[in-house]
Amino acid sequence: MLAQTGMSPSTAIRSKTEYQRVVRELRVHQVELEDRVRERTAELSGVVTKLQKEIVERKTVEEALRKSEERQRTLFESAPDPIVVVDAEGRMERVNRQAEVMFGYQRSELIGQPVEMLIPERFRNHHKQHRAGYIGSPHLPPMGTGLQLYGRRKDGSEFPVDIMLSPLASKRSPLVIAVVRDVTEQKQVNETLRRLSIRLLKAQDAERRRIARELHDSTGQNLAAVAMNLSLVTRSAGVLDTLAQKALAESIAMVEGCVREIRTLSYLLHPPMLDERGLARALRWFVDGFSKRSGMRVDLEVAADWERPTPEMEIALFRVVQEALTNAHRHAESSTARIRLDGDKTTVRLEVEDAGKGLAKAHAEGQLVTGGVGITGMRERIKQLGGRLQIESGLRGTTIRVTLPLGSATK
Predict the structure, then answer these.
(1) Cα–Cα distance between 270 and 347 in angstroms, integer?
(2) Mean pLDDT over the full length of the chain
């Protein structure tokens, strides 16, 4: 065999040995390769399992997101108030069904159009400025804060609205959600209440005037007659015993006291001096009497060039002073107060300042009622004359400021 191959015995042995070595190395490499394949297969299996898990989780998230978006669309469309979503350029991106109904447009007519098309033309420039400022510094103002807002329908008709603005995060650009509410009915109710309040105040003044007249002309005169009769009786007091004389003297003193109280009450209800001599004289009389009754020092400053305004203004300002001093004494527990009355050719100004403990917020906003309709009545009296009443209250006291335009008439 070796002879046939031409190999020597030693060469054949070396070749066989080399072959066996190579075979062993190949087997080792095969085992290593199989181990690596198993390891890699296990790794890939883990990766596949992880990917499958991630796919399942992503599908779950996508399904939840789809449902969430569907709920949002449902809520958006079923909202009871019109909703308009506006981009940074002021163009409408989305509107709900109620917005279509309120403004009379189809959705396709609104999307992509400037939101100012829903606002009366005379307000559009101001609204653009307001919108730009809001986009630059978004916040959450209460509906219609400090503004008289109006919407405009497709047919050109206008109606009062309140608007709530809210920023909305977006990947593309900032968005703003506007919730619109028609307040026509609310304003009608408020106007009705305002008119009823005016009628109530007028009726109250008329009743005060009537009662004051009755007290002065009837009860006061009757008491004066009784005092005169008692004075006549005193001429014969010598025939009375000591007890009767004492009772007569006490009766005279009580009648005189009643006369003074009736006169004071009559003047407080409606001082005739207000009609006869004007507000400045009436306030001087009232302040002097109030200081004596309450022990409170009240300073009254009236401008040297003061001129009488209309009778409606005089009674309104007099009632404000009455209410302010009563609150200062009873509630603020102030020991001093200052009243300033001045004006010019266009405006009447009144300021009442005390040094008490101040009014609670609810009281300053008009919920305090004393001696009638309270601060709410004060505000309404001034408002119906076209004026303004401001209240500043703190730890150092309360200041009430009233401004009235001359020439205004009660509505």
Answers:
(1) 25
(2) 81
